[in-house]
Structures are given as structure tokens and as C-alpha cells.
């Protein structure tokens, strides 16, 4: 198995790339989880936005009362959008960073802090924790991505 | 031409990577198409959100009536956001999966089912089809991405 | 340093890939900047969406008046979402394009026009400039991404 992969591409044999693959997959799965959380709140709170989604709860006028917004649904949706705004730059910049030849220890530090910060951010948003809990977890993830971007630009320009 | 590419990078010579490049480009173009659909509905329904966009339809108070929401515009926007939420994980996890050395036949199966499911999802959202049409097409794409993430984590940890 | 990177991966030694890394990092950082602009407007306009964010400005009923929408906040948020809708396809398709073996001069042309167009788009959105300023800058970025996708599909199919 290893021989075949080494033939097809060496990237997965690179320790830093393998670390990136692991943490990028974890944060992207975490982001995908937000869809299920939103769906859970829509179904339990009976709060839909599409008439065809509310149709199974009643016909005509009876269904219309389920076309409404719900605070829990909106909160989960904001958490999902915040993930998109922050996890997309992490995955894009993180891939370039992983390919720029960083030390494995530095790379693991970046990937692990980001992943931890975004998991905390989700809890802080959904529970919700009082500020500055959510703000700090957001800022830590932001700073990690910024640090990786700095390393990418340095590597791309100084080579 | 081939020789030059092989020198610059072997990735595009990898059959799985080439399949990924094809389907990733197709679903990203499909996602970009949502911008044109939203713009089409905004122009034909005369429903804008920015005052400077409505300005060409009238001056002052006359333009204000075009600053409104429209069900078709909002539906296209929701379809676009759902694409972002689902196609971003597919592209990120799919790239890692393509580089993890899967069999070409498995990879093609993943990429083709996802692409087909997302195209169906767009039709189900815009027509709209009665549920569970849209829900099922969403779930199929979600499951494919989950399966690729499982393979990435297995490959990254077991090597 | 160079030797070590060359050993870990040759990608960063590829001139086109290095150009892509530079411009992708720049547009992703520009997109991340939208979070700070939104936060700036939320704090200066005192317009929040989460009760826990408004809590530091007053207790109970006093805080509720800060749970409101503000035109500047909403404008920055729309600019951020538009970045997600356009920069995500650029990064995904641009990576595939960079790995498909284009001429360096063509690649630089694509990357630089896109980056310039998206920076103009942000100014056009936030100032705001009268139309078609924002519309044109959006269309230029869209066309560049489309051109890269065409080259990716041509390279993936014709090899």
C-alpha cells in the first residue's frame, strides 16, 4: 500500500502534509456538523424558511405558522457562517503553509491551536458562554491563520 | 507540453488527481452559477438590497420601492449558501482524499455521486421539488464527503 | 533551507505554484479583513445580534436596544459573503490551475487581475461607489476564475 502511494504522489508521505490532512479534515467535519445542528433546531422548534419544508407539518394556512425564524436556529446558522469565514482561510492558507516546508513541531502547534480554538468557539456560540469567551476563541484562530499566511508569504518571496 | 508539465509537477499526471480536478472545477462552476441566477432574479424582480443598485431604476423615493426582498431572490441565495456549506468541504476534503492514494474507481464513484447530487440539489431547490427531494440530494452529497474524510483520516494515521 | 524544502516537497520550488501561494494568501487575508471591518462597525454603531455581545453595554432592557441591524454593518457583511462566494472558487480552481502546468506569464496575469479586481470590489462596496463600479469589478474576477476553470478542464481532459 505504501509503495503504491509513494508512486502516485509523495505528498501523503510528508509528515507535515499528513498532519495538515488530519486537522483540516477534523475542522471541515466540525463545520459540516453545523448543518446537522441547524437541521435539529429547525425540526424540534418547527421553524422553517422554505414552504415545501413546512408542508409535512400541515396544509395551506396551517403550514404557514411554521415559516418563521427561531433564535436557536439563527444562532446555529451564525455559528456555521462564522465557521465558513474562518475555516476556509485556514484550509487554503494551511495547505500552502504545509507545502512551504515548515518544521513539523511549528506546523503541529499551528494546526492544533486552530482546531482547539474553533471547537471552543462552537461551544461558546451554542451554549452560549458570556463574552469574551467566544471573542477570544475567534481571535486565537484568526491569529493562527495570520501567522501561517506570514510564513507562506515569507517562504514564497525569500526562496 | 506533457514533458514540460511533468517537469513542473507530477500531480496532473496522476489519474485520481486529474479526476478530482475535473469534478472540483465542475461543482465550483455550478456554485458560481448561483451568482448569475441571483442576479437574474434581482434584475427581473427588481429587488435590490444596495441603494446604489436600485438607483438606475429611479431617483430618490422612486428607487426606494426596489429596496425589498423577493422570494425567488432569497431562494437562489439560500441555494448559493447551501452550496458554500457543502462544496467547500467537498473541495477541501476531496483534495486530501485524492492525494491519499485511493483506487481510481473508488475516487470516481465519490466524485461523480457528489457532483450529481449537488446538481440535483440545485434543481430541487430552485423548481422547487417537494420534500424529501432536496433533503435526500443534500444527504447523499454529505455522506460522500463524510466517506472521503474517513478515508483521509485512515490514510493519514495508518501510514 | 532550500535543500530541506526541496526534499520535503518540490511544489514550493515551482514558480507558478509560488505565485499562486502569494496571491491566494493575499486574497484570503483580504477576505479575513472583512471580519475586522464588520466588528469595527458593530462596536462603533453599537449594533449587535447576540444578546451576550450587547451585555457589556447595559443590563436587561438597556442592552436590548443594541440588538439591532445597522446599514454599515450589513454592508460589510454583504461584502464578506460576496468574498466567500468569489474567493473560494478562485482558491480552489486557482490551485488546480497552478498544478496544470500553465505558462508563468499567463498564470501571473490571471492571479494579479483577480487580486486587483477583488480589492477594487471591496472599496466599491464599502465607500460605496455608484454602479457599475462594483458590478464591473465583480465581473472581472468572475471572468478570471472562469478562464482558469476552462484551462483546468482542458488540461485534465487533453493530457
TrEMBL record, chains A, B, C:
Topology relative to the lipid bilayer, per the entry, is:
Multi-pass membrane protein
Q: What is its EC number?
A: 2.5.1.18
Q: Which reaction does it catalyse?
A: RX + glutathione = an S-substituted glutathione + a halide anion + H(+)
Q: Where in the cell is it found?
A: Endoplasmic reticulum membrane; Mitochondrion outer membrane
GO MF terms held by the record = glutathione transferase activity
Q: Which residues cross the membrane?
A: 20-41, 87-114
Has UniProt tagged this entry with the keyword DNA damage? no
Record key words, sorted? Acetylation, Endoplasmic reticulum, Membrane, Mitochondrion, Mitochondrion outer membrane, Transferase, Transmembrane, Transmembrane helix
- Superkingdom is Eukaryota
Q: Which GO terms describe its cellular component?
A: endoplasmic reticulum membrane; mitochondrial outer membrane
Q: Which SUPFAM superfamilies match?
A: MAPEG domain-like
Q: Which Pfam families match?
A: MAPEG (PF01124)
Similarity comment: family membership? Belongs to the MAPEG family.
**Partners and quaternary state?**
Homotrimer; The trimer binds only one molecule of glutathione.
Instruction: Relate the protein's function as given in its record.
Output: Conjugation of reduced glutathione to a wide number of exogenous and endogenous hydrophobic electrophiles.
User: What is this protein called in UniProt?
Assistant: Microsomal glutathione S-transferase 1
Species of origin:
Hippolais icterina
Q: What is this organism's lineage?
A: Eukaryota, Metazoa, Chordata, Craniata, Vertebrata
Q: Which gene encodes it?
A: Mgst1
